[in-house]
Amino acid sequence: MPNFKIFQDNPDYARIKIFGSNNIALNTDASGNLAITSTGLAITAPTNGLTVTASADGLSITPPADGLTITSTGLAITAPTNGLTVTASADGLSITPPADGLTITSTGLAITAPTNGLTVTASADGLSITPPAGGLAITSTGLAITAPTNGLTVTASADGLSITPPADGLTITSTGLAITAPTNGLTVTASADGLSITPPAGGLLVTGSLSTALGTTEVITVVSNNTSTAGGPVADVNAFAVRTWTYGVINASLDENAQAVVKLQISPDSINWIDDVSNTTINQNSMHTFVATTFLKYARLYYSAVNAASAITLNIYFQGQI
Fold it and tell me: Could you list the pLDDT tens digit for every one of the 322 residues in the chain?
């Protein structure tokens, strides 16, 4: 039979029900803690104040739509030694570093550069910026770089950087620019009249091995078994094409005692010829050289046999330095 005693003599059986205004008793959970549940409990934040709501994930704090305004005539925020000072003015937040600069120290801070991006590291000597191994690529379809008036224009193409001076030339002016020539070196100065190059007082010493390669040319003509005593010329040569030149003639005749007569002729137009070196007799198996004493554009040799009974064979060489 239920215990309807109003006063219990056993304290463990004593119970008290607390009712609200709606004649519903307050509940506790299995551990005896007061549980408050409500589908109609409303907490209204003050105007321009914070709204705090509790969801299954935790507390959520929502500022007012126009932002949170904190006003105080006695609120003081003191930055730590060597720390940042943050102040709020009508223009926005202002962050002021300490007078001696901001020091960031960390043994666990890792900054990973993006792929193909710059890596910035801080050592005792200062900041170090390392480009990616394959080079830094900057691409843009809207980036415009405008050179200043009379300044250099630098453009980057697939072939590399291109530096273009202004159309009227680049002018460098300075009242404090000093260029000091190295000891025993050339001094270059720029005046209104142009560049001036001044050698050192003791003269300019150039050390090294000087190598000069000269071009050469050679024309070989063979006159075989010629018996004409009237003679004839070999093909003329344009002497304008060479700096220095010499004819060499070898009498390679097979007939014993076959002699040849050779002379050097020159001409300004390859039409009118004059003897420059007169008739020279060349014996069998002998050689003679011919060098002009007067310079004209064209040169040739004129040859003939001394005796029609003795055929001559001549090896004629024209050799020159270009």
Answer: 565 566 667 776 666 777 766 777 777 777 777 666 666 666 677 777 778 787 778 888 888 887 777 776 766 777 777 778 878 777 878 888 888 777 777 676 677 777 777 887 777 787 788 888 877 777 777 767 777 777 788 887 778 788 888 887 777 777 767 777 777 777 877 777 777 888 887 777 767 665 667 789 999 999 999 999 999 999 999 998 898 999 999 999 998 889 999 999 999 999 999 999 999 999 999 999 999 999 999 999 999 999 999 999 999 999 999 8
The domain defined by 216-321 carries CATH number 2.60.130.10: no
Domain extent listing, the chain:
216-321
pTM of the entire structure?
0.38
Cα→Cα distances 220→55, 239, 250, 274, 315, Å: 109, 15, 11, 22, 7
Instruction: Tell me how far CA of residue 182 lies from CA of 191, 199, 204, in angstroms.
Output: 20, 11, 12
Size (the chain), residues: 322
